[in-house]
Write a structure and sequence with these properties.
alpha/beta, two-stranded parallel sheet, 24% strand
């Protein structure tokens, strides 16, 4: 499956990486599984890396399903999407999806910028300043 998903900080910050071509079924599974993250007493944030994503499903037919599967959480965390600047179509699709799902999100150009942003919006996070998620894996 071209989706990696693991915790950077257990029950606080998830890392999701979309790689290559993601099918509609994989995309829906990712959204459904990610909505189950919201079980903590703290906001759960996610860094979603789309830098190596080169083909994504047409999300429009899936919007109704995804909006019903993802509860609106007033105190939910932030989704920080790491993407290349030259991927306008992917950025548009991600923006539409996250807006339909009523999630707080920002686009950043690097993992380091994503970490910096999360530390600004949630000062309770203990994330070191690193350039790659691999730097956080023990």
């Amino acid at each position: 499956m071209p989706i990696k998903r693991y915790w950077l900080i257990e029950n606080r910050v998830a890392y999701i990486e979309l790689i290559g071509a993601v099918t509609e079924s994989e995309y829906i599974t990712m959204i459904t599984n990610t909505s189950s993250f919201q079980t903590s007493q703290y906001p759960i944030h996610a860094i979603v890396n789309t830098k190596t994503l080169h083909d994504r499903p047409n999300t429009i037919p899936s919007m109704n399903f995804m909006s019903r599967q993802t509860p609106h959480i007033d105190e939910g965390g932030w989704i920080v999407v790491v993407t290349r600047q030259d991927t306008g179509v992917i950025r548009f699709a991600v923006r539409v999806t996250l807006e339909v799902l009523r999630l707080q999100f920002r686009f950043k150009g690097s993992f380091a910028d994503a970490v910096k942003y999360l530390k600004q919006v949630d000062d309770t996070l203990e994330l070191p300043s690193v350039n790659s998620p691999d730097d956080l894996i023990l």
